[in-house]
């Protein structure tokens, strides 16, 4: 099965799930949408090499082992997200299917047009759904900024590849368009208000596909597109993404400490994305990719729990999930942040201090998140009954997976992303 | 007979101004047709007359798909939710309204497009320079329309403009997959027209008050 067929399975499952399940009063079977995508990814054809979206032909989609591993982890995370969701309404399944399909096309594309169109499709579907669910300034900002960012990637496409343009304005313009476009889709400062707003104001199942699939895939693309740029363009790209990433990490971590408990996880997630983006700009692709993937994996484990509103059945697992984000061993976030710190620290000691500041604030935010709830409503009730027990079991399973990932980090990474 | 560059650039600028300012239920259709017509002379001069078929085909497809999706949506019952013409939020009263902001944006886009045209080369086989002014201007206006959008219709217009200008740039770039790539980019215009038409059609049939 080639990547286009995998994307078709995602889109087909999403359309079928949204059309059939609500009418059949079987909305909880919506977990089958990402599960069908997971099965398709399992049987997908994996080829050696890395897809760089700059030089290939339009129809050439290329699924390598690392991308397959990341997408499978995203699919599992979306399955868990829907299992733990208190309700599934139906239309969000269409968003999961269509945005997932567009993301798969984008991350496996070797042509800049297909890559940019995939990202426009993914963020367009998300923005449309979010505006429909909760019309307002924050959701409209997703349409304005995220779609505008992906439009910048479209504008860069006709100028790629630029490897032969060693001097002049072209590599600088292309790099600036790529960096700003990717920063907008990743929700980095000063273009990232839409991400924090949407994650804070919408139901977990509605927003899940952005943090649990689109953003990780865009991060992987950002690591790879840099390889297609000439030295001048690569330096411009690195400078922009490093500055935006580090500013996002420090500001996001600071806001995470101050934030309302319901919105804290969104800020932590965006701050970690900022750290991963800063490491890409640091110019050490190996460290940036390893650290970024590990940190993303941590969020794919903790996201299904922490993106949801607190439920009685998941109170205990949520506290442990917060501890997994402290950045202290054996939490898996330790390995991801350590590698990113190593990458950023090689640029300058000033940047190292800023990265350490962000990590310190993230530690504080995670500890605040792990405190017991003060709200008597949240303390009351244990989520008993078959549904509550099943949710509790699934939540503890998620936490156990996170702990296993932290303890056996290297084996876990090899299992998920392959030996390379 | 040689072509007059100022004339073909003026056609692109006029089209972009129309597209950035147009509002209402048919805004996407008007913008897409204007941009396709405005960029066709540039494309014909740079890549030959057959290349314009991509833009004109996209504009025709946008008109047809918009009409079909609007008609199809009218057969469904009215639903609460997203009307593409209603602003998603009400901004505070300002000295300048949304259209004035777009006019200022269109004026600011002139030096941006001019810089791109004079300083950035394009071409997969042979790099050329100086052809990109109308394309960059339409793209900049489309990007600005996206950034100051207040409704889903604004976003659809912006996406259509960006799609058609990127398709034109891709055709000027040339290369072995020029037509297929341009067609893929131009598909954004009919897609956004279809989405806007569908959403508009869903809300065209309001429930009759006091019945039932």
Describe the structure concisely.
Chain A has 420 residues and is mainly alpha-helical. Helix content of chain A is 74%, strand content 0%. Chain A has helices at 3-20, 32-42, 65-84, 91-108, 112-133, 137-156, 169-186, 193-201, 204-207, 209-225, 231-258, 261-281, 285-306, 315-324, 332-345, 349-370, 376-379, 386-407, 409-417.
Count of runs of 4 or more consecutive helical residues of chain A = 19
Low-pLDDT segments, ≥5 res of chain B: none
pLDDT averaged over residues of chain B: 85
Elements of chain B, N to C (H/E) = HHHHHHHH
Largest sheet of chain B: none
The 3D shape of chain A can be described as globular
| Number of separate strands of chain B | 0
Number of domains of chain A: 1
Gap between N and C termini of chain B: 69 Å
Task: Describe, in plain words, how this protein is organized in 3D.
The complex is a heterodimer of chains A (420) and B (212). Chain A has helices at residues 3-20, 32-42, 65-84, 91-108, 112-133, 137-156, 169-186, 193-201, 204-207, 209-225, 231-258, 261-281, 285-306, 315-324, 332-345, 349-370, 376-379, 386-407, 409-417. In chain A, α1 (3-20) runs antiparallel to α2 (32-42), α5 (112-133) runs antiparallel to α6 and α7 packs parallel to α11 (231-258). In chain A, 63% of the residues are buried. Chain A contains 19 helices and no strands. Chain A has one domain. Chain A is mostly helical. Chain B is mainly α and 212 residues long. Helices cover 68% and strands 0% of the residues of chain B. Chain B has helices spanning 5-21, 27-47, 52-74, 98-119, 133-147, 152-173, 178-186, 188-202. The model of chain B has no long low-confidence stretch (mean pLDDT 85). Chain A binds chain B through residues 57-58, 111, 113-114, 117, 120, 124, 127-128, 131-132, 135-137, 139-140, 143-145, 147-148, 151-152, 154-155, 157-159, 165, 168-170, 173, and chain B through 81-82, 86, 88-89, 116, 119-122, 127, 139, 142-143, 146-150, 152, 155, 158-159, 162-163, 165-166, 169-170, 172-173, 176-177, 180-181, 184-185, 188, 195.
């Amino acid at each position: 099965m080639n990547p286009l067929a995998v994307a078709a399975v995602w889109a087909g499952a999403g359309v079928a799930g949204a059309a059939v399940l609500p009418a059949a009063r079987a909305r909880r079977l919506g977990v089958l949408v990402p599960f069908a995508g997971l099965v398709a990814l399992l049987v997908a054809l994996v080829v050696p090499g890395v897809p760089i979206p700059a030089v290939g032909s339009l129809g050439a989609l290329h699924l390598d082992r690392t991308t397959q591993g990341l997408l499978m982890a995203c699919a599992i995370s979306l399955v868990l997200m829907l299992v733990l969701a208190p309700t599934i309404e139906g239309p969000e399944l269409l968003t999961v299917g269509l945005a997932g399909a567009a993301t798969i096309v984008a991350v496996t594309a070797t042509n800049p047009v297909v890559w940019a169109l995939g990202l426009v499709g993914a963020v367009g579907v998300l923005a449309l759904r979010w505006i429909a669910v909760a019309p307002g300034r924050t959701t409209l900002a997703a349409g304005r900024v995220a779609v505008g960012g992906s439009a910048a990637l479209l504008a860069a496409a006709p100028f790629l590849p630029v490897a032969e343009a060693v001097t002049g304005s072209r590599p600088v313009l292309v790099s600036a368009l790529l960096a700003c476009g990717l920063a907008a889709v990743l929700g980095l400062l000063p273009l990232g208000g839409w991400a924090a707003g949407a994650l804070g104001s919408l139901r977990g199942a509605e927003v899940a596909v952005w943090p649990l699939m689109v953003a990780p895939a865009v991060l992987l693309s950002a690591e790879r597109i840099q390889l297609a740029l000439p030295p001048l363009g690569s330096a411009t790209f690195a400078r922009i993404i490093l500055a935006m990433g580090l500013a996002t990490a420090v500001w996001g971590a600071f806001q995470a400490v101050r934030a309302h408990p319901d919105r804290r996880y969104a800020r932590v997630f965006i701050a970690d994305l900022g750290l991963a983006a800063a490491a890409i700009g640091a110019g050490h692709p190996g460290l940036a990719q390893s650290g970024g993937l590990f940190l993303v994996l941590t969020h794919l484990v903790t996201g299904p729990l922490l993106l949801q509103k607190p439920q009685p059945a998941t109170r205990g697992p949520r506290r442990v999930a917060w501890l997994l984000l402290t950045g202290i061993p054996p939490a898996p976030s330790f390995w991801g942040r350590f590698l990113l710190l190593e990458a950023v620290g090689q640029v300058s000691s000033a940047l190292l201090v800023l990265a350490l500041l962000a990590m310190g604030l993230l530690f504080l935010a995670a500890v605040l998140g792990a405190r017991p709830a003060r709200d008597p409503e949240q303390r009351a009730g244990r989520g008993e009954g078959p549904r509550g027990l099943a949710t509790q079991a699934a939540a503890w399973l998620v936490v156990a997976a996170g702990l296993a990932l932290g303890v056996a980090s290297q084996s876990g990474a090899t299992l998920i992303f392959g030996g390379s | 007979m040689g072509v007059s560059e100022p004339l073909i650039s003026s056609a692109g600028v006029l089209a972009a101004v129309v597209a950035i300012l147009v509002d209402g239920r048919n805004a996407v259709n008007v913008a897409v047709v204007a941009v396709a017509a405005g960029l066709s002379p540039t494309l014909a001069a740079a890549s030959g007359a057959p290349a314009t078929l991509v833009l004109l085909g996209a504009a025709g497809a946008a008109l047809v798909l918009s009409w079909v999706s609007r008609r199809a949506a009218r057969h469904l019952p009215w639903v609460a939710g997203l009307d593409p013409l209603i602003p998603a939020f009400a901004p505070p009263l300002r000295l300048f309204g949304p259209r004035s902001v777009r006019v200022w944006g269109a004026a600011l886009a002139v030096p941006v497009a001019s810089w791109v045209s004079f300083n950035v080369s394009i071409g997969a086989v042979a790099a050329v320079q100086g052809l990109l002014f109308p394309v960059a201007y339409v793209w900049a206006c489309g990007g600005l329309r996206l950034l100051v959008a207040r409704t889903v219709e604004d976003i659809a217009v912006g996406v259509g403009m960006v799609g058609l200008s990127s398709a034109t740039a891709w055709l000027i770039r040339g290369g072995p997959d020029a037509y297929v790539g341009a067609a893929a980019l131009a598909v954004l215009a009919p897609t956004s027209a279809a989405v806007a038409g569908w959403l508009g059609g869903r809300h065209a049939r309001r429930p009759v008050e006091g019945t039932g």
